[in-house]
Specification:
By secondary structure, the chain is mostly helical. The protein is 63% helix and 0% strand. It contains 11 helices and no strands. The longest helix is centred in the middle third of the chain and has 24 residues. It starts with a helix and ends with a helix.
């Protein structure tokens, strides 16, 4: 579980974090301490779940160019970890049986949820391009964000229409890897696409926090 300090860094604004009196941070702590002390009977405040999701869907949140690509990536991954933890905990504590769910920590290949599968899909798209760039750069870490990361925020809002554009941008990277006998990402994307080929796939409604769980796993 993320620390209270890390949750605050994800859900609070820059001005709230820099407030010398720490009013917003103290309020956040006072609302989350009962959740920690009270066990699974106490729900996680949903506004924190929403704010963490919004922050995590922006790979460039709290980013300054002077920080460099590596630091941006690390901070984004931390934000995603917080958002996943809050969403997972919120669902596990939900008082309505229709909304309650206990997600495993590992990748759940039996999960056929549209949101979860879309998360897995963009993760494979990101990995495909990253690995192609890694090979092109002489097996050195890429110094720029992938197209999947740049499309990420838009993807969370309109997954189907955004995927059509993202998929086109992957063509040169797919070809590069296939020409080197490395087509495992292409196969992985195809397997997820086969699971998504139904009426849910063409639905362009925005995704829920389950999308981040699929992506992160």
């Amino acid at each position: 579980a993320p620390s209270l300090e890390r949750i605050a860094e994800t859900v609070l604004t820059k001005s709230e974090l820099e407030d010398k009196k720490k009013r917003a941070k103290k309020q956040l702590y006072s609302r989350l301490l009962p959740v920690i002390a009270g066990g699974c009977e106490i729900p996680i405040p949903y506004d924190f779940v929403q704010k963490s999701f919004q922050t995590a869907c922006n790979p460039f949140a709290q980013y300054q160019s002077k920080d460099g690509e590596s630091k941006r990536k690390i901070n984004w991954e931390k934000n995603i970890g917080v958002a996943c933890a809050l969403y997972k905990g919120w669902r596990a504590r939900h008082d309505k049986s229709s909304q309650w769910r206990n997600y495993p920590m590992a990748l759940d290949k039996e999960n056929r949820s549209r949101d979860y599968l879309y998360g897995r899909l963009i993760a494979q798209a990101e990995n495909l391009e990253w690995y192609a760039l890694y090979l092109q750069n002489g097996k050195k870490t890429p110094t720029r964000a992938t197209n999947a990361e740049r499309y990420f925020q838009q993807f969370a809002q309109q997954p189907y229409s955004t995927w059509l554009n993202l998929e086109k941008s992957l063509t040169p990277y797919k070809n590069y890897l296939v020409n080197r006998g490395k087509d495992f990402y292409k196969q992985a994307i195809g397997e997820i696409m086969d699971l998504l080929q139904n009426e849910d796939f063409t639905c362009d409604n925005k995704l829920s926090g389950e999308f981040l769980l699929g992506y992160h796993c």
